[in-house]
Amino acid sequence: MRHPSIARNLPLRLVLVLAALLALLPARADEFGEIAVSADAMYTGTTYHGYGEMRVRIENRSGSKAHTVTVVYPANSYGGGNYLSRVSRSVNVAPNSDEVITLLQPPLPATGDNQVRVEVDGHHEGEIRAPANNHCNFSGYGGGNPRPPTILVSRNFDFDGITRLFSTNRYAATGTPKPSPALYPGGRAGTGRVFYGSTADPNAVETIRAEVPPPEWSDNWLAYTPFDAIALDTADLRALPAPVLDALGNYLAAGGNIFLAGQAAPPAVWGAAGKKIPGAEARYDIGFGSCYVFASQSALENLPDDALTRLHTQLRTAVGYWQSLPTDGTSANNLLPVTKDTKIPTRGIVIVMLLFILAIGPANLIVLGRLKRRTWMLWTIPAISALTTLGVFGYSFVREGFTPDTRISGLTCLDQPGHRATTVGLTGFYCPLTPSGGLQFDPETEATPLVGLGYGIHSEAREVDWTQGQHFQHGWIAARVPVHFHIRKSEIRRERLELERAPGGLKIVNGLGATVKQLWLADADGKIYEVTNLPAGQLAGPVAPGGAKVLSHLGVSRLRTDFGLGNSGARTDALKSGLQAYLVPGSYIALLDGNPFIENALGAAASPHRTLSDSLVYGLLDPETTP
Predict the structure, then answer these.
(1) Which end of the chain is more exposed for a tag (fewer CB within 10 A), N or C?
(2) CB-side exposure of 295: number of CA atoms within 13 Å?
């Protein structure tokens, strides 16, 4: 006999099964004449930082005519505070062909109608439904509560197992009470999503399952930046195309975390791995990130408590980094000064206004009264107003001019054998006049605006277009207001130091693209060589080793933590005396006068004379050629 509770729940179960099957079906294309358009995503869920990715497939069914198609998200925006009102991209689609393009949402809310507007040859044709993602919309997360780390879980991975491991409570969204750990055999204490009126659990972790199999994952590393960790199985690595594997390597090197089950070590294509740190979760440091290797998924799901605590700590550190960024112009300018004074000159404004009022009012009346020419007020008032305006404008020009100021600073991990340069840093702009061209970042640069979020602050709509690179068009820079961005990028670069053993020491050629103000280099035996003031392209040496040797082995990850967000002022001076402690055999640290790794997003509007940039480079030498 069928149990009554099963009979009652049967319709609900059928609905859930049907919904799951429908979710697996490809997105239906909406037709606009000869053009068919559909949108989907690699995952659906809530993310809190990084770039959210949407994929749009465009099919041109015409046999003879090409069409230019523009997609805009959201179709209608009604955001408040600092938000994105438009993310767009245009593409020319040849006859009888299709194109898959990506729309990447920088880390600001894009609140709107969750529709994508479709324009064909400049004409608005209609809208399609956007994927159900919720990227950087912080209004739904408990006031003042910390945001949880987020893990992307591949379809080959045991989603329920890793969910039990971190005890993610996916029921909180409906207000259902937190399940008892007894309901999840082997589960640990802790909860997940927390909304207004709830209390944040410091051990909360979000898990999001990938909606597509690994071969269909994104080949753009920015698509993975919303995640504090990614869980992969060895079967995933075998299925991943080379461009996707490279993108994951860039994500890892830029400070990401990867949990890898069924492998003995990370793939060699991900670059020079640091020494294996033993434990139940064998860790390899690659660039600024860490790859945790497990013998199997069950080994990960049955970690001892001390190992699980270390993973929790790593995840909390990862998400805490983003929450520690400054969220107002004054704090960001204190961290990386791009202008000396961000305060409004209240006293000067009041004095000018008083003088203007006296001149245009009493003084004007008295003088014209004595001259018996009161009708001249018809031209003296406009004249005084014009002269005052010209005076204020002239003072501003003399004080600041029209040329914008730019400040760039960063830390770069340069993997010379793998030709990969991974950079984190800050860039700041101060423009006396609003630049008409906006900002142009490289298409694979993660640029996080250092602004506050929420509805209780000044509202500023921003637009970004991806047709030709990453163009921050409108709303990003205002005249006489310092603007800062946190920068991350990981890319193939050819900069390097060339070394040659010679009698008496090492010959060192500076191929880093900027003058080396100071260099510390550790050879394979741990002997340290020092060089100062080496111009780009020039040879130093033979350089004899000093008396110091590598002792501490702190490495590049620790340098990133101690370095902070910028390479300026007291921070650099404080590190100079102790930089040798971060060296490992076969590495170097170079302090550059200039930064070849972070682009000046103002482009032609910037002036080299008003641009101040520097860089701290941590280089990894090829072990086969290191002297």
Answers:
(1) N
(2) 7
DSSP state of 145: P
Is the model more confident about 483 or about 454?
483
Query: pLDDT grade, residue 178 (50/70/90)?
Result: very low
> Which residue, 492, 486, 42, is CA-closest to 250?
492
The pLDDT-based confidence of 601 (bands split at 50, 70, 90) is very high
Distance CA 531, CA 540 (A): 8
Residues 6+ apart with CB under 8 A from 544: 504, 505, 529
> What's the CA dihedral at 399, 401, 404, 405 to 10 degrees?
-40
Q: List Cβ neighbours of 358 (8 Å cut-off, separation of 6 or more).
A: none
Beta bridge partners of 260: 232, 293
Strand 134-135, strand 46-47: pairing: parallel
**Residue 142: φ, ψ to 5°:** -45, 135
Q: Give which of 312, 273, 317 is closest to 291, Cα–Cα.
A: 273
Residues 6 or more apart whose Cβ sits within 8 Å of residue 509 = 497, 498, 499, 537, 538, 539, 540
CB 432 within 8 A of CB 503: no
Nearest CA-CA partner of 547 in 527, 524, 576? 527
Q: Confirm if 81 and 452 have CB atoms less than 8 A apart.
A: yes
Rounded to whole angstroms, the Cα distance separating 26 from 15 reads 19
CA dist 88 → 101, 470, 616 (Å): 11, 10, 35
- Position 275 scores a pLDDT of 60
Residues 6+ away with beta carbon under 8 Å from 208 = 43, 44, 45, 47, 150, 151, 152, 153, 227
pTM: 0.83
Which of 431, 488, 449 minimizes the C-alpha distance to 82?
A: 449
Cis peptide bond prior to 623, omega within 30° of 0 = no
Kindly report, residue by residue over 135-162, the tens digit of the pLDDT: 887 644 434 456 889 999 998 888 888 8
Beta carbons of 538 and 510 less than 8 angstroms apart: yes
Burial of residue 152, with CB atoms counted within 10 A of its CB: 0-12 exposed, 13-18 middle, 19 or more buried: buried
**Cα dihedral value 30, 32, 34, 35, nearest 10:** -60
